[in-house]
From TrEMBL:
GO terms for molecular function: aminopeptidase activity. This is Aminopeptidase P family protein. PANTHER family: XAA-PRO AMINOPEPTIDASE 1. It comes from Stakelama saccharophila. SUPFAM superfamilies: Creatinase/aminopeptidase, Creatinase/prolidase N-terminal domain. It holds the Pfam family Creatinase_N_2.
Length: 598
């Protein structure tokens, strides 16, 4: 099965053997993770799609792949239109498509460990209108044909220092026990990997870019816990760290353990708890409470130690970024730099800090038309040289023990066009509007999102992704529940008020298909602001990311006096904070890049 068409054919043969008339293939794992281990990359193996969000449905005579606006270009480059219909979500959901295309009376399979209960109910209802049924499978049919499927990572769990975490695991579990008491619940299931890592002050290496360990946990109302994990991942140091209040079990025992809560009230997050968890608890006689995982919001509101660590990580990372930007400006016009070379060079600069653990996601190193795909991922096939007249977009981040970074900069190779400067300046104006926003407590990111778009809207332009996402503390680079985005954009859901201590990205952009992409991204911290006469607590943002914004792409005439003052003040802070971390040559370059514009 050397081609994806061969794999699609093999899956259809397997479905016939399993007496199924279709199968749903999500891009996730048993924990509803955004980034998943190689063993769970079923969608990529089957279709070739390498984005971070998508699904596919395979029927006997038809197949479709579902992606949102971030991947409109990428899915067409990576997935054959001869094999799959391209379907845009949320305009058309998988359930809608199934209702219209499933064979009447058909049996459509799904893996209950890879879907939420809400999706199962939605799809069941849609298929019923077709006279078809949704059928849970005991084993995933893709696994039956994926002969060289990688094994799960053997990486061991590691202790995360309390000095970096800012709180002990016992304290966090006690807080969760209080949360359970308030809901008259006996236990809560934690299945989101970053929630487990945060709650127990542990980290791991099972998922690329995210330092987590494949595991499940049940926390009880007395503050004790059961942790389900491959025993080979445990060390004496982790056992000692967890203490006697945390009982260790083999990960394979988790499903059966859920059936032992007869008569108990057990909380499960409907967003991260897969259908199989709900099913096992209910089959065992438990009363399931579908409520948000108590670690989600607590994890999002960073404490003083996490904030201090993040600031240090940002300075270290910012110096690496400045060294890279200087290098790219010097070398790209010579014609010898391509996308892979650039990504590798930036990784080298980060590694030279001596503290890099991993990148926080696959670096988006995109020149020319590749930049118009917001989540472009370069490989040997797509790799392109940076050429004069193009824009080069680099979106990247690092994982350090004291913080997770995420930054995007866009630079010209040679002289940019007037249109490029216009579009870049409009994106910058939106970026500044978010950074300068002041808002009362209770405001959601969705209420701020239009601030970033207004300068583009004025020219009849927009961008098809959210303006900002939450960021973890040496955890996921994409962390909820907060976000800055239109409610109907990818990842949308119940609006979450912004709270002091949350970290968000600020990343408006503009993308011209086939020609170029522009994005400017910093991370910001939600902080209180003193406003004379305010009748409620006022919040705003503190910028955490420090690297110059490309002055050769700015059209000052499009900016007002306040925006220019913001830009000059920001660049002065970049110079003050990053300059001392550089050698003489890089510092001299930074001084020119940070010179006053207004």
């Amino acid at each position: 099965m050397s081609t994806h068409s061969d794999r699609l054919k093999a899956l259809r043969e397997q479905l016939r053997a399993d007496r199924l008339d279709g199968f749903v293939v999500p891009l996730t794992d048993e924990h509803m993770s955004e980034y998943v281990g190689a063993y769970a990359q079923r969608l990529a193996w089957l279709t070739g799609f390498e984005g971070s969000a998508g699904n596919a449905v395979v029927l006997p005579e038809a197949a479709a792949i579902f992606t949102d606006g971030r991947y409109t270009l990428q899915v067409r480059e990576q997935v054959s239109g001869d094999d799959y219909e391209y379907v845009a979500v949320p305009a058309t959901s998988m359930s809608d498509w199934l209702r219209d295309h499933a064979p009447e009376g058909g049996r459509i399979g799904y893996d209950p460990w890879l879907h939420t209960r809400s999706w199962v109910r939605e799809a069941t209802k849609a298929l019923a209108e077709r006279g078809a049924e949704l059928v849970p499978v005991a084993s995933n049919p893709i696994d039956a044909i994926w002969s060289d499927r990688p094994a799960p990572s053997p990486a061991r769990m590691e202790v995360y220092p309390e000095k970096a975490a800012g709180r002990s695991s016992a304290d966090k579990r006690a807080e969760i026990a209080d949360w359970l008491a308030g809901r008259k619940a006996d236990a809560v299931v934690l299945s989101a990997l970053d929630s487990i890592a945060w709650t127990f002050n542990v980290r791991g290496g099972d998922v690329e870019h995210t330092p987590v360990t494949l595991s499940y946990s049940v926390i009880h109302s007395d503050g004790t816990a059961d942790l389900f994990i491959d025993p080979a991942k445990m060390t004496d140091a982790v056992r000692q760290h967890l203490g006697n209040a945390v009982r260790i079990h083999d990960r394979t025992a988790f499903g059966e353990a859920l059936r032992g809560f007869s008569g108990k009230r057990v909380a499960v997050d409907p967003g991260f708890g897969v259908a199989a968890i709900f099913d096992a608890l209910e089959q065992g006689g438990a009363k399931v409470l579908p409520v948000r995982d108590p670690a989600v919001l607590a994890k999002a509101i960073k404490n003083e130690a996490e904030i201090a660590g993040h600031r240090q990580a940002q300075l270290r990372d910012g110096a690496a970024i400045v060294r890279f930007l200087h290098w790219i400006e010097r070398e790209a016009p010579k014609g010898g730099v391509d996308e892979l070379t650039a990504a590798a060079k930036l990784l080298d600069f980060r590694k030279e800090t001596g503290l890099l653990k991993d990148t926080s996601f696959d670096t988006i190193s995109a020149t020319g038309g590749h930049g118009a795909s917001p989540h472009y991922r370069v490989d040997e096939t797509s790799n392109a040289k940076l050429e004069k007249g193009q824009l080069f977009l680099i979106d990247s981040g690092g994982q350090y023990e004291d913080g997770t970074t995420d930054i995007t900069r866009t630079v010209p190779v040679g002289e940019p066009s007037a249109e490029m400067r216009d579009r870049f300046t409009r994106v910058l104006k939106g970026h500044i509007a978010i950074d300068r926003a002041r808002f009362p407590e209770g405001t959601t990111g969705g209420q701020l999102d239009s601030f970033a778009r207004q300068p583009l809207w004025e020219a009849g332009l927009d961008f098809a992704h959210g303006t900002g996402h939450g960021v973890g503390a040496y955890l996921g680079v994409h962390e909820g529940p907060q976000r800055i985005a239109k409610p109907n954009y990818p990842g949308g859901g119940p609006a979450e008020p912004l709270v002091a201590g949350m970290i968000c990205s600020n990343e408006p952009g503009y993308y011209k298909a086939g020609e170029y992409g522009i994005r400017i991204e910093n991370l910001v911290l939600v902080v209180p602001h003193e406003v004379t006469g305010a009748e409620a607590q006022v919040l705003g943002f503190e910028t955490l990311t420090y690297a110059p914004i490309e002055r050769n792409l700015i059209e000052p005439m499009l900016m007002n006096a306040e925006e220019l003052r913001w830009l000059d003040a920001y660049h002065q802070r970049v110079l003050d904070r990053i300059g001392p971390l550089l050698d003489d040559e890089d510092r001299a370059w930074l001084e020119k890049k940070c010179a006053t514009i207004g």
